[in-house]
Specification:
Number of helices: 3
Largest sheet: 4 strands, mixed
Order of helices and strands: EHEEEHEHEEE
Radius of gyration: 15 Å
Structural class: alpha/beta
Low-confidence stretches: none
């Protein structure tokens, strides 16, 4: 069994570039429809896959902006949480909760990417 989150975004190419710059993702797959529209980009972030697709309302594929925000919180562990958070913000993301050492033994923060998806950027204390 494997599980691959698929984020619905306005433009998969723009989102793929963002995650590559902010999180060090690498592209491993891409598929287009007959008209050339990108329908899925699969990225690898560390050992985890992440798929990106455009909003297609007739299929029920809606972005956070289409539904008033995201009810999903993605958690990603990095050794350089501060750098990842800085890159996310530099690329258009916003800090929801700053990256700090937490009393439960993690250094983490919460950010919203420019596409409305919420992330916990976490890792070991520093």
């Amino acid at each position: 069994m494997s599980l691959t989150p698929r984020l619905i975004v306005p433009d998969p190419d723009t989102a793929a570039t963002y995650y590559q710059k902010a999180m060090g993702a690498t592209e491993v797959f891409r598929a287009q429809d007959d008209s050339g529209r990108v329908m899925v980009v699969v990225l690898q972030i560390g050992g985890s896959p992440l798929s990106l697709s455009p909003a297609v309302p007739e299929w029920g594929w809606l972005s956070p902006d289409d539904v008033g925000g995201s009810p999903v919180l993605l958690e990603a562990e990095f050794t350089d949480q501060d750098v990842v958070a800085e890159r996310m913000v530099a690329g258009g993301g916003t800090v929801v909760v700053p990256v700090e050492n937490r009393p439960y033994g993690k250094r983490e923060g919460r950010l919203r990417d420019p596409f409305g998806h919420l992330w916990i950027v976490t890792g070991e204390l520093r």
